[in-house]
Write a structure and sequence with these properties.
By secondary structure, this protein is of the alpha+beta class. It is built from two helices and six strands. The strands form three sheets. Strands 1-2 form a two-stranded antiparallel ribbon. Strands 3-6 form a two-stranded antiparallel ribbon. A two-stranded antiparallel ribbon has the order 4-5. A hairpin with a 4-residue loop joins strand 4 and strand 5.
């Protein structure tokens, strides 16, 4: 299920039904893997405890002769390690 459909489905099941507050709360609490992301990268949010949607990266380098991007090194994940934003 895509992110928007998942958010709306979970919000509809929340106490009080499909309200603006339920949608906001559902959107701030996610854990899914979008179809077009690099293997191993997930989108994870946990309200104020983990407010960053993704904290992983996979470097790529463009190969002009092959006319495509190639992965460099391993997937790096900082999931759950990023300090909360206190702007």
């Amino acid at each position: 299920m895509d992110g928007t459909a998942d958010i709306l489905t979970r919000a509809a099941k929340a106490e009080g039904g499909l309200t603006q507050a339920a949608i906001i709360n559902a959107a701030r609490s996610q854990n899914f893997k979008p179809a077009l992301t690099v293997e191993g990268i997930k989108f994870i949010l946990d309200g104020a405890e983990d407010a960053y949607l993704f904290e992983s990266l996979q470097l790529q380098r463009y190969s002009a002769p092959d006319k495509l991007f190639k992965f460099e090194g391993e997937l790096t994940s900082f999931e759950g390690e990023t300090e909360p934003y206190e702007g």
